[in-house]
Write a structure and sequence with these properties.
Elements: H1 2-23, E1 27-32, H2 35-38, H3 40-55, E2 59-64, H4 67-76, E3 82-84, E4 87-89, H5 92-116, E5 121-125, E6 132-136, E7 145-150, H6 153-160, E8 164-168, E9 170-172, E10 178-180, H7 183-194, E11 198-203, E12 221-223, H8 224-232, H9 240-252, E13 257-262, H10 268-274, E14 281-284
Parallel strand pairs: 1-2, 1-11, 2-8, 5-8, 11-13, 12-14
Antiparallel strand pairs: 3-4, 6-7, 9-10, 13-14
Helix pairs in contact: 4-5, 7-9
Length: about 280
């Protein structure tokens, strides 16, 4: 019984060899969020997967938001969350909480979990080492930013030493005003600037579905042109549009492949990187 188990384990490792060879020394940017960040079992699985990738010589960079966590702290402090067109309206007091929660609490808890699992993580936000220069999108949304420039020097130095950067999506503008930036966008811009092999967005959906109610209609692989068609015909809708657009922008700037995967599925990260079929939806140029 035991020897069969061991044989299986060895075969699996052996089959992974071409993938390890292909991605060794390559950068993979992962946007981490959704259920995978809330559920303790899923969280532990993601952390383990990231440490495993790092041990194999692959260079993961983790980018995270933390919407639910921000909301619960705003509530504790008696600040009502406001949204406009699905984007958080961030006034001064809200921005203070966003920064404290994302950079202080959420970021360091992820770093701590990775380090407990034997990885070597360092937590940063866009302000550290001038990593991200941002500008305000519009005064109506308050202190919400978009990425103007990514300074890759800091991240390059970290990944070259085998360190796993964990990036909180807060940055500041030229005047030093802190801004809240959508984490998908930050991940996409970092992937583009780092010349990453892959951008992987972990979501709470299986991927892009032709029929939202039917998981078997998943689009396993598509080009930018095919995604445009899906958008035109209304198959792509709601929250999936900005995610796909984020992937398209990264591809246009030289990222090799982008993936929208289901963070609720155990080990979806390893499935994506270490198997021929992958999981979720892969978008390529």
């Amino acid at each position: 019984e035991n020897s069969i188990e061991n044989m299986k384990r060895v075969e699996v490792l052996s089959e992974a060899l071409p993938f390890i060879q292909r991605f060794r020394g390559k950068t993979v940017v992962v946007k981490y969020g959704g259920a995978a960040m809330k559920d303790p079992t899923l969280k532990a699985g993601v952390v383990r997967d990231v440490v495993l990738l790092s041990c194999l010589g692959i260079r993961p960079i983790l980018v995270h938001g933390g919407g639910p966590e921000i909301n619960s702290w705003l509530e504790k402090l008696g600040i009502a969350p406001q949204f406009k067109d699905g984007l958080r309206v961030t006034d001064g007091p809200t921005m203070e909480v966003v920064e404290m929660v994302l950079v202080g609490k959420v970021n360091k808890s992820i770093v701590s979990l990775i380090n407990q699992e034997g990885g070597n993580a360092v937590g940063v936000c866009g302000k550290d080492g001038n990593l991200i220069q941002a500008r305000q999108i519009s005064s109506t949304l308050g202190f919400v930013g978009e990425v103007e420039h990514v300074n890759t020097k800091l991240l390059q130095g970290l990944v070259e030493q085998g360190i796993i950067p964990v990036v909180a999506s807060v940055a500041s503008d030229a005047e030093g005003q802190a801004l809240n930036i959508n984490a998908d966008i930050v991940a996409g811009e970092i992937a583009a600037s780092m010349g990453a092999e892959k951008l992987i967005l972990m979501t709470d959906v299986p991927g892009v579905l032709l029929d939202k109610a039917d998981v078997s209609t998943i689009v396993a692989e598509a080009t930018i042109a095919e995604m445009r068609d899906l958008k035109r015909t209304g198959v792509l809708a709601g929250g999936m549009i900005p995610k796909v657009e984020c992937c398209v922008r990264s591809l246009a700037q030289g990222v090799n492949a982008t993936h929208i995967i289901d963070g609720r599925a155990p080990h979806s990260l390893l499935l994506e990187i270490m198997t021929e079929d992958g999981c979720g939806t892969m978008i390529t140029g």
